[in-house]
Write a structure and sequence with these properties.
The protein is of the alpha+beta class. It has a domain of 163 residues. Strands 1, 2, 3, 4, 5 and 6 form a 6-stranded mixed beta sheet that branches. The radius of gyration is 30 Å and the shape is globular. It starts with a helix and ends in a 21-residue tail after the last strand.
Length: 233
């Protein structure tokens, strides 16, 4: 009897061991998929690419944002240049444009902001774009690839601010050139130029572009919110 009981116990243990080994194992919980940026956006620029803008790439950028609604204005030389105007450490592109499709440029939900920095208009009022206007557009850079990035689409169209002798200046250069005057607080580089015989500066602060005239500037009114945080220059 003892041998029979031992044999039965051995068989039972073997059966249980086999059953446990054949039972389905619980699957490990899969991780949620991570966001993958587009190859063009993720690929950093080589040093040779991260340089002054070239005409073909500028034309491609204009086409990507405006389609066929504008062209580079041939009456200005240069009609494009770069700088960090909103102070986010990413290079922006400035282009001087001529509108060719007014319906598209003035449509209600166009993906750009139209401003007239010298008119002191409320940002709630969208100034219309006219047929023979000369426009200055600033395309803000994004990430490592700056304005060349496919995701760099935030664009301001500025009216009545294309003058003569246009030069990009850093904040330090601006302060040094206007010692003793009351100054605004630009977030990045400025564009110095002469309009109607008077020298002034186009600059970005508190989420908008403004015009600085050294003779008439009285100070800035604080405005809530901003697209980008300012950096010390």
């Amino acid at each position: 009897m003892r041998q029979t009981a031992t044999t039965l116990l051995t068989v039972s243990l073997a059966f249980l061991s086999t059953a446990c080994s054949q039972a389905p194992k619980p699957k490990a919980e899969s991780l949620p998929p991570t966001y993958q940026s587009t190859p063009d956006s993720a690929k950093p620029l080589t040093p040779s690419m991260a340089s002054a803008p070239k005409l073909p790439e500028v034309q491609n950028k204009i086409k990507a944002i405006f389609k066929d609604a504008v062209v580079l204005n041939p009456n200005h030389n240069p009609n494009f240049f770069s700088g960090d105007f909103n102070g986010d450490a990413s290079e922006d592109l400035v282009v001087i444009l001529k509108p060719v499709n007014l319906e598209e440029m003035n449509r209600q939900f166009a993906p750009w902001l139209v401003r007239d920095p010298r008119a002191n208009l409320s940002t709630r009022v969208r100034p219309p774009i006219g047929k023979d206007e000369t426009l200055l557009a600033v395309i803000h850079g994004f990430g490592t690839n700056d304005w060349r990035d496919p995701d760099a689409t935030q664009t301001f169209i500025l009216k009545n601010v294309v003058g003569n002798d246009m030069k990009v200046q850093t904040g330090k250069e601006f302060v040094a050139a206007n010692t003793g005057r009351k100054l605004p607080l630009p977030q990045g580089d400025l564009i110095g130029e002469t309009i109607d015989g008077a020298r002034g500066y186009l600059y970005y602060a508190t989420s908008n572009y403004s015009w600085y005239d050294p003779k008439t500037f009285k100070g800035e009114e604080p405005a809530p919110g901003a697209f980008h945080r300012a950096r010390m220059r």
